[in-house]
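ugh ok fine here u go
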Amino acid sequence: MSQRKSELTTIASVAQLLAVILTVAALYFARDVFIPMALGLLLSFLLSPIVNRLQRSGVNNIISVGATAILTFLLLAGGFTIVGREVSKLVSELPQHKGELIAKARGLAGLTTGVGGSLDELASEVTEAIEDTAAADRTERKSTALQGWMDRVFPNDPSAGKLGPNDGTTSKSPLFVQEVQADLPLSTWATTAGTVLGPLGTAGLVSVFALFLLIHREDLRDRIIAVVSHGNYVTTTEALDEAGGRISRYLIAQTIVNTSYGFVLAIGLAIIGGTMTADGSFPNAMLWGVLATCLRFVPYVGPVAAAIFPLTIAMSVFPGYSVFLAVLALIVVMELLSNNVLEPWLYGASTGISAVAVIVAAVFWGWLWGPVGLLLSTPLTVCLVVLGRYVPRFKVISTMLGEQVEIKVSMRFYQRLLASDARRARELLLQHLDANDLDTTADAVLVPAFKRIRYDHTEEYLSDAVENRLFALSGGMIADLQKHLQASDTTECGSSADSNDLASDRPVNIPKVIGCAAHHISESLVLNLLRMGAEGIYRLETADEETLPTDICHQIVETDPSAVVIVVMPPGGFAQARFLCKSIREKGYDKPIIIACLGKFKNFDRLFVKARKAGVTSMATSYSQTQAKLRSLIGYHSPSTK
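structure:
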């Protein structure tokens, strides 16, 4: 049976791996379909809060979507117009700055020794290239813009526009052979049309898909819930709400941050140009602001690219390095303020993914879909993390990429013990104790760690030596825990001192309890924890796991304690506890006996029946429950109730 189960597990793992591979392959080969859909979905997430706000104000759904779409298209058209005008201006002004660029290149060549000649040649080549480009531009300026566009769509003879003979007599007129092909205009027109209409078609598809999602968002939401939920409407609704809310907040906050960044950058460049340059202006300051706004939507790569362009212009256009250093200082200050002040304030609730996951997602989606993948990496990863949080089958995604690692404190404590990192394990334990009480810390950290050590040793993951080492470290942690309690909680220390004075005057007021370990050293550690929690309430005397049952029975008969507690740390130990209880009852002890069988048991009722037959008064399954039963059975009352 176990072998068949192992084979089924292997088959399921292979099937999941194949499903992942097929999904990635489908996303890659069908990217022409998925990219417009993803962009449309992203645009709908960005615009849906505006549409919802208008609809809550009483505006019809269709009118709300139409007004939002018109406003968005106007903003995009205005932005593209500004960018196009500024780019044309930049291209026309570039030849005017060739002198400073050549001077910087020659100056850099003079500062170097080994590569000075190469840089000098590079400067000469740049000079010749700029002069040739300027000559070609002067020739092309004679034709109108419409004629130039017509010549590109319906080109004439390629050799007609060449200047001068190409007889090979000089380096300015190299000899070349041009292959003449028939019927080129039609094919060239088709290629040009495909180049132009391709992005336009993608943009149109994205717009249509976004409008469709915005208009029918409620209907699509109901359909998705009906298909995906499988009857669990609560979980599906919560998952959709969380994913939509996180992505919308992230996109809106990012839009505000990037827009303000580009606006401040444009103003800062204009101020630098007006105060530090002879012309009184920085070239194309508005272009760099708009470009920074757009590029910063791409994580990691975008901010770097947005900073390179104005820095390059400052280096190549203005003499000296003062303007370059001023622009660099402006960008550094803006990045610090944006990353440390503006983004945390506007983002508010986190996207739910870790910083490392953002980098990994950017690399993966960038490899899969290129620059568009970089733009979509964070929203898509947010969807995957939310999916892993609500669907158990995809929980590994949430664990690997989520911001909050869902690892129990007990497992982190156990991992630190395995790594022999006593300092970090002690810090985790004390931090949990400061935030909670001893009962909660014992049940949430120490007891689960002890059980895990026992389980791994039983499954032969740990050797005897390693198990003993881990329990020895844990014993030291318990001692440190007691010192920390005595040092930090002065009120408790004072009440404990009062109880000790009372015990010295009237010792009968402090009941005595004998604690027994059933079969393992871990149970002795739990008894030490019980002694810590019993201070001022009862006095616990312990008998370790190596003490013989006859000696324990003799000790109990002689001291006649108010109660006996037997600690069992699974696996095993329950049979030894029942035998010890039966032996104690046979010696004539008639007061309460508690078995603290720490853990969760499916057959608890059957175990309790067996324990009752052996003479057990009560059973507990946790540290806090054991303490509560001991206090109840010995008749403890707090001083405030007396």
